[in-house]
Amino acid sequence: MAAAPREAPYDAAVARIVLIVNPYSRSVTRKRVAEVTAALARRAELVVRQTEGRGHAIELAAAAVGEADALVVFSGDGTYNEAINGAAGELPFGFLPGGGASVFPRALGLPRDPAVAAARVVEALEEGRTRSIGLGRVNGRLFCFSAGIGFDAEAVRRIDRRGRDREGRRAGNAVFAATVIGVLLESRFRIAPQLEVDGYGRAACLFVANGRPYTYAGPLAVTIAGDADFEAGIDFVAPKEIRPAAAPRLAMRGVRGTLRGDPRVLTGHDLDRFEVHCDRPLPLQVDGEDLGDVTKALFEAERGALSVLL
Q: pLDDT digits over 12-61, tens only?
């Protein structure tokens, strides 16, 4: 734990911020950490805490409750996910882009430069400017923007199995995109129905969106669920089956977010909850983090669960 230096004793009128930094996130460097801490410390009482491993951000976020006025996270999407599972609903959050994709802050419209985003976040705290958004939940685990069962979760798992580079960083967007394609190639672009969305029907895989886009492929927004809204319930898209002839068009419509109404796809919009049963254990991911195999999953919307500094 490192406290940012200050010249005067603590002033109760000054906002207190806990900054959680994942030093292994792809875009987090010493220089950027220094720039971010300087931007925040100019206008707030600041404590910086670094994650030391998977799950640590949950503990750090929970510990910040009661000692801070706001929690700011400088990391990638996986650490954002951990932090909200530690303190969502307890503190206003700021999210600074530090990962390879940093889907969540980009989807919320924050600047790509983390120091500029930090200045905007601390200004929002001073002015009391927040946006109330919903979160998703699956089997008790909160998620910021996306969850999936099937081939995208399998791709996440394979990325994790690759390990990290010499600097401890996970593989980037290009590797992830190639891994998704690799998973589909292994199946020869054929995936039969293997799960049941209760009340809707059988499907090959499932994508659940809490907002849009679902993810990014470099600069390209992959929307999946075009009507998903952070201020509404959760949406899902589930192709009934994947076949070689239909796969390219499904993929294109998925990128554009225009699958709703397609007879080959099950969809749900602005839902509070729904349940999924799998024919066999299938991989589940949330916000790009592998949660293991599941045979059933209960998805729920937590409306207005998070206050975001924007």
A: 468 999 999 999 999 999 999 999 999 999 999 999 999 999 999 999 99
User: What amino acid is encoded at 263 in this protein?
Assistant: P
The whole-angstrom separation of Cα 111 and Cα 260 is 30
- Picking from 117, 112, 102, 125, the residue whose alpha carbon sits closest to that of residue 39 is 117
pLDDT in tens, 179-224: 878 888 888 899 999 999 999 999 999 999 999 999 998 899 999 9
In CATH, what number does 141-304 get?
2.60.200.40
pTM: 0.92
What CATH superfamily classification does 2-128 receive? Probable inorganic polyphosphate/atp-NAD kinase; domain 1 (3.40.50.10330)
